[in-house]
Amino acid sequence: MIFRVFNKEELSALFDVLAENIIVGPVEKALDKDGIPLYSFELVRDYEELRLQYPSTKISAKKYFLPHNETLSSFSVDKEGWTKHVDYNIYKPLVFFGMHACDINALNKLDKVLLESVYPTPYYGSKRKNMFIVGVNCTPQSHCFCRDMGADTVQHGFDMFLTDLGDRYFVEVLSAEAFNYLDRINSREAVEVDHLDYMKRVKERIGKFTSKVDTTDLTKILDMEFDAEVWREWGEKCLSCGTCANVCPTCYCYGVDEQVDLDLKGAHKIKHLHSCNLLDFAEVAGGHNFRPESYIRLKYRYYHKHRGFVEAFEESLCVGCGRCGEACLADITVPEVIASVRGEG
Amino acid sequence: MSGELSYLGVSLSRPRVAFFELTSCEGCQLQIFNKEATLIDFLSLVEPVNFREVMDEKSNDYQIAFVEGAVTRQDEVVKLQKIRENAEILVALGSCACFGGVAQLKNRFNDMEWVKKEVYGDYPIDTQQARPLSAEVKVDLEIYGCPIKKEEVERIVVDLLVGKAITHPKYPVCMECKANENICLFDLGEPCLGPVTRGGCDSWCPNSRMGCWGCRGPAEAANMDQMIKIMARHGISRETMLDRLECFGGFAGYVEEMRTDETNEDIQGNSE
Ligand code: SF4
Ligand code: SF4
Ligand code: SF4
Ligand code: SF4
Ligand code: SF4
User: Fold this and answer.
1) Which of A17, A285, A306, A320 could be cross-linked to A146 through a Cys-Cys bond (beta carbons 3.0 to 4.6 Å apart)?
2) Looking at domain B6-162, what is its CATH homologous superfamily?
3) What is this structure's pTM?
4) Any residues with Cβ below 6 Å from ligand 1, and which?
5) Are residues B168 and B220 in contact, defined by beta-carbon separation less than 8 angstroms?
């Protein structure tokens, strides 16, 4: 890997050279009732709007690679015949300026399912292949447990990764494009003092994690505790609202609707992200529902994330970003659910 | 509107439709005319034979009747029964027709005579408890909302025409609200009934930073116990929550339960 360094004042220059593309990054979206800023990933036209020091965003960046609603295809029929229109809904590459390690890891996990599987999905693939990612280091928040999920650092799946060393940025360079962009600003090769400062930073950060999820033997424990009473207790709280899946950077479930056009000349196929907590997630033709109870639906959310996916890919489908627990109005959080299943709650 | 209707080469018959209103603001019917861009397409799918808001002719020969409004008078009961006899499909259009709507707020008062006197003085008028259509006749299809969402009506009419099953979202408003990436009203310190209210409105109110008032009635897995706890945790009074739950009538059963619980608590509290 190539390591480079540039002074903080050069950050706007980096933004400028990247701004020949469309830039998506963390911006302040609103203030909450206590005056605390809430962040989200939006198109950034002005460098001044970019908030690289953001704690985390309420919702992951997934609208850019797994849109909540997406028209997959349409057709129209007339006297001459019929025409089909398939659109992957990506016209220009996007630069993601300021993704945290968890969110890049989330993309790497999605790649395994949506790109590297037997039937890769071009709707995701086209967007993923047209991303340029600038990662940035973060300060662990009280809800972050990415370290326990092995997602607090990221090895691949981005172009460059910035670590704030106070007066300068330490840059891991993964792609030739990234190297070329850095060539256009004032940057230099990293030297020993940079390496030492970097390692110091990493150590400081590790000390800041407070939220914990013990994953020791977790797949086995989940198997053993399939009928545990705690599932019912969590299920009683659950609103079956789907918020957890909607804010999650790795949930990819969806449903497809075919809508006949109002003029009856064609139809559109539209994909909507769904959630396994919704009442009709396991409803099939004839109205039969395999998971009518909310505790069972909630349980399977955990089984997919922390058991099924681990068995298939030797890693969890959760990156520990903690967004689901933050957003859940019923206060259902991953650390608490897992602890309770382990008999520690 | 003339011309053959067909989809994928299969010809379809254009249904004769009629619109009626009982006790309502006529806002739902107006919604149908609100979206000019698709109005022509929409009207070419059906043959309106009775639509007081836009045409003079009246006919009792129709297949689909869209009935807006709650039942609050005896003459409305008679009118509704007539419509039921004439229509193959009777659609309750909007929350008044589905749940009693805003008009059912008066049901909170036990003494209907007193209500009448407050509003109309000595003017002789019939007024009964406001009821949904389903209290009087069989309803084939309910379209929720105060007002209804035009896009949803368009979809339902197209689905009826081509013979697709009509479905409503079972999930709550939060699902669409999160898809729209709104800031949650609770983060802003405001109440919202989105977690227990049926979706389908594309989170209309939260999109404008207004909490949901529950106009579409309960979602199919509405967890009211948890909703009560959420409101309490966010410092929102039970009365504020009840005001919202009571507004459109969809949550009448839950409201009754909550009021009964309160009365029981009061009795227990007093006897201590
Ligand atoms: S766990 Fe929370 S966010 Fe997820 S469906 Fe249940 S109540 Fe909604
Ligand atoms: S399950 Fe929760 S903590 Fe895990 S990746 Fe999804 S939102 Fe983040
Ligand atoms: S099954 Fe549930 S947890 Fe798994 S990806 Fe789908 S929505 Fe997410
Ligand atoms: S604003 Fe209302 S509808 Fe939207 S997420 Fe929050 S509670 Fe749900
Ligand atoms: S957000 Fe609630 S009150 Fe507003 S339109 Fe939707 S269901 Fe009705």
Assistant:
1) A320
2) NADH:ubiquinone oxidoreductase-like, 20kDa subunit (3.40.50.700)
3) 0.95
4) A 238-244, 277, 298, 328, 330, 332
5) no
